[in-house]
Amino acid sequence: MSPSEVAAGPKVRTRGGLQIGLLVVAALVAAAGAACIGRYQIDIGTLLRVLGSRVFPIEHTWPETVETVLFEVRLPRIAISMLIGAALSASGVTFQGIFRNPLVSPFILGVSGGAGFGAAVAILLDSGSLGIQLSAFSFGALAVVIAVLLSRAYSSNPTLVLVLSGIITGGIFTALLGLLKYSADPEDKLPVIEFWLLGSLSASRASVLLRLAVVVLPALLLVMALRWRLNLLVFGDETAKSLGVNVTLERFIHIALGTLLASASVAVCGIVGWVGLVVPHLARLLVGPDHVRLVPVSLLLGAIFLLAVDTVARTLTAAEIPLGIVTALLGAPVFAILLRRGERSWM
Length: 347
Fold this sequence. Notes:
By secondary structure, this protein is an all-alpha fold. The chain has 15 helices and no strands. The protein starts with a helix and ends in a 6-residue tail after the last helix.
């Protein structure tokens, strides 16, 4: 048990556990609803029987199409959307804790620019979906590494310089991405690049889920295990050092975890904004600024939020709406409301 949990008292811990339990139930209900909704409708009874047949000897009274739709398309997509939602939210709350600023997003150090450039390079080279994901992940992580190295060239405020270095790095990669788009075939490659940049989970399959889970799940577990350490960084460098904290090492570990989560997410679904910015704010309104409760609540809310957004994106119209458009249309007004109501819950 962390020091903040001990200090919180049994009533606070019980309330926090109840909130997390309710969010877990809400996530399961949202997943079941998403599995039933789509162009091929599946009723909840059939869904439960099909899932139960994998464990219990239940007679198959449903068409084979139902199992194909569920196990090859919808369930992998649901799992991927929830993993990415949790990853982006965890990355957002981590970076907000590191920089002690609730307006920080997971892309503050140039991940989106680097990942977009990497994806565009892979698309121009006809590298396939796996090549696009690997290239986007690699260049997203590379952008953050460059930003961190660039910040070390200056001796002034390390937090401010790191943010400015991220802006510089992201701007350079965004410019390079623009150059690639300018030189791409406007009838063949350019539409593919633009569609990827807008974000989508239409290519979600079991193999993609496996690759994503291998990276994201260990990182999420580490973020959960180290979440109470973020409370120490929030006090400021001088106070944290007086408590015996190696601020440089702590900041490096959390930046690495946040970058890993953001890069892996962007590599799979493209650039999907607002999740890592809005969800931590909503979580703060529910449980306050203590990261011991804030991080798990953010993870669960992020999973539910992105699953709901993806369900809307694939079912609202005949043609699937890019994920980034829906998150922006929903996230921007929600964030405006949260800014009005949540100022007292900021760190």
